[in-house]
């Protein structure tokens, strides 16, 4: 480990083009000791970003740094610190789960057998199960167990909760929070489940169509967005206000969405003759949809 | 810290506010007393499965409000001269007043009209009780 690394990873100006998809000028970093949730629609570029980060792809432009090492050049040195799980990974069907555990333990010296035994219980798995007999959810849990018990300093999970039942999801989120009790361990996970992200992530990154739409710490993310209900009397026309993401006008009532909320906005609206009748906070899911819609409009215009 | 925390994502209050309210409540009912140590940010985050940054924000605000004190390298403690019993009630009142203001706005009442309504309600109540 490099002592000067304050970031678990840092992507700077990373570009990678495929025939029908381009990840464009992406910059993103995760401070050590934090959890980042990467949220985006299908095909947004989440998996491509992850694969660039862990050296499975090389960027055409930009730099990738992982635990203080340049990727992909120094990936061999970083391997020990990083574990990656994606639900399209396959284990060896004809072997039992404990065979896999011994196999991974033989490669990674930081393997924690006691923790592995604890995870077996928490995830409700049996060591003598053959992989080919595992359900989809059990398969994901087995992959997670094999990654977590390595005690990696950075855990990278691609859609980790997608195949899990609610109980297993609960167990996983608890394990993830246990991991960051240690300030030197970090987690990146991509997810469709904005509720999980909203609950346990410190940093949030929105990705859509190969571009980073927004990334910042969760608290300021949630703090900036508000939905205001307005009463606009007949004859009053609202001017173009800055920081308004969306304005849906009815006959008299309107809904205004902003991503730079501050109380001064009330005064500005009232000066124009509109009355603010309600102010609501927004869930991460609502914020995500609103940001993506806006960025798509911006791209088109 | 024996009573369990209940953090709900269907609660209209943001997560950090729920954490604040529940810590305050423990102080208000005397479960946590002046000088008592409270869990570290990362410990509480792991215990209730809520992000570190959310707990950090709750602790920072409680510190500003004089409810807790953080001593560098030693942890966080309930503040020495915490007077939460009053301020909890204060907060409750502020909440009710805010709700009243919102209702008044929907009814297009001015501030003076709202205050007059408050007086009316008070008169009605005192007549009823006499």
Helix fraction bin of chain A: 25-40%
- SSE arrangement of chain A, N to C: EEEHEEHEHHHEHEHEEHEEEHEH
CATH class of the largest domain in chain B: Mainly Alpha
Shape of chain B: elongated
- Describe the strand arrangement of the main beta sheet of chain A, using strand numbers: 6-7-8-3-9-10
Number of helices of chain A: 10
Number of strands of chain A: 14
Radius of gyration of chain B: 19 Å
Distance between the termini of chain A: 46 Å
The portion of residues assigned to helices of chain B is 55-70%
Number of strands of chain B: 3
Uncertain segments of chain B are: none
Largest interface: A-B, 26 and 19 residues
Query: Given the helix and strand composition of chain B, which structural class is it?
Result: mainly alpha
Walk me through what this model shows.
The complex is a heterodimer of chains A (301) and B (130). With 301 residues, chain A is an alpha/beta fold. Chain A has ten helices and 14 strands. Chain A has helices spanning 46-53, 75-78, 97-107, 113-122, 136-148, 166-179, 194-200, 218-224, 264-271, 284-300, and strands spanning 7-17, 22-31, 35-39, 61-66, 69-71, 82-86, 154-158, 186-191, 203-208, 211-217, 226-231, 244-249, 253-258, 275-281. In chain A, the strands form three sheets. In chain A, strands 6-7-8-3-9-10 form a six-stranded mixed beta sheet, with helices on both faces. In chain A, strands 2-1-4-5 form a four-stranded antiparallel beta sheet. A four-stranded antiparallel beta sheet of chain A has the order 12-13-11-14, sandwiched between helices. In chain A, a hairpin with a 2-residue loop joins strand 9 and strand 10 (211-217). In chain A, helix 4 (113-122) packs antiparallel against helix 5. The longest helix of chain B has 23 residues, at 84-106. Helix content of chain B is 59%, strand content 8%. The termini of chain B are far apart. The mean pLDDT of chain B is 86. Chain B has helices at 15-28, 41-48, 52-64, 84-106, 111-129; strands spanning 37-38, 68-71, 75-78. Chain B is mainly alpha-helical. In chain B, strand 2 and strand 3 form a beta hairpin. In chain B, strands 1-3-2 form a three-stranded antiparallel beta sheet. Chain B folds into two domains: 15-78, Orthogonal Bundle (Arc Repressor Mutant, subunit A); 84-128. At the A-B interface, helix 6, helix 7, helix 8 and strand 14 of A face helix 2, helix 3 and helix 4 of B.
């Amino acid at each position: 480990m490099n002592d000067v690394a304050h970031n678990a990873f840092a992507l700077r100006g990373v570009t990678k083009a495929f025939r029908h998809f381009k990840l464009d000028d992406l910059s993103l970093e995760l401070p050590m000791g934090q959890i980042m949730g990467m949220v985006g629609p299908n095909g947004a570029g989440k998996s491509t970003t992850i694969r660039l980060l862990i050296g499975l792809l090389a960027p055409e432009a930009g730099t990738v740094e992982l635990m203080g090492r340049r990727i992909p050049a120094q990936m061999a040195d970083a391997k020990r610190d990083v574990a990656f799980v994606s639900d399209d990974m396959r284990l060896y069907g004809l072997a039992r789960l404990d065979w896999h555990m011994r196999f991974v333990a033989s490669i990674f010296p930081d393997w924690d057998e006691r923790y592995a035994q604890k995870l077996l219980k928490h995830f409700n798995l049996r060591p003598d199960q053959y992989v080919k007999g595992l359900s989809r959810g059990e398969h994901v849990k087995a992959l997670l167990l094999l990654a977590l018990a390595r005690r990696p300093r950075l855990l990278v999970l691609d859609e980790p909760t997608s195949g899990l039942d609610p109980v297993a999801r609960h167990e996983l989120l608890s394990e993830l929070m246990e991991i960051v009790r240690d300030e030197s361990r970090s987690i990146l996970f991509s997810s469709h489940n904005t509720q999980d992200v909203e609950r346990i992530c410190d940093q949030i990154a929105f990705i859509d169509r190969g571009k980073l739409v927004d990334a910042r710490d969760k608290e300021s993310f949630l703090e900036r967005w508000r939905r205001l209900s307005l009463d606009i009397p007949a004859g009053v026309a609202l001017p173009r206000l800055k920081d308004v993401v969306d304005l849906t006008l009815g006959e008299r009532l309107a809904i205004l969405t902003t991503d730079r909320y501050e109380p001064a906005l009330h005064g500005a609206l009232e000066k124009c003759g509109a009355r603010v009748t309600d102010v609501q906070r927004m869930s991460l899911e609502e914020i995500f949809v609103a940001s993506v819609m806006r960025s798509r409009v911006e791209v088109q215009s | 810290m024996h009573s369990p925390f209940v953090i709900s994502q269907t609660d209209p209050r943001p997560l950090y506010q729920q954490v604040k309210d529940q810590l305050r409540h423990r102080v208000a009912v005397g479960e946590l007393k002046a000088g008592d140590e409270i869990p570290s940010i990362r410990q509480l985050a792991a215990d209730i499965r809520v992000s570190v940054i959310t707990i950090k924000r709750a602790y920072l605000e409680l510190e500003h409000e004089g409810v807790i004190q953080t001593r560098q390298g030693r942890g966080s403690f309930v503040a020495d001269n915490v007077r939460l019993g009053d301020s909890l009630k204060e907060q409750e009142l502020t909440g009710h007043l805010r709700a009243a203001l919102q209702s008044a706005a929907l009814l297009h009442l001015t501030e003076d009209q709202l205050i007059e309504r408050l007086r009316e309600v008070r008169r009605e109540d005192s007549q009823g009780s006499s």
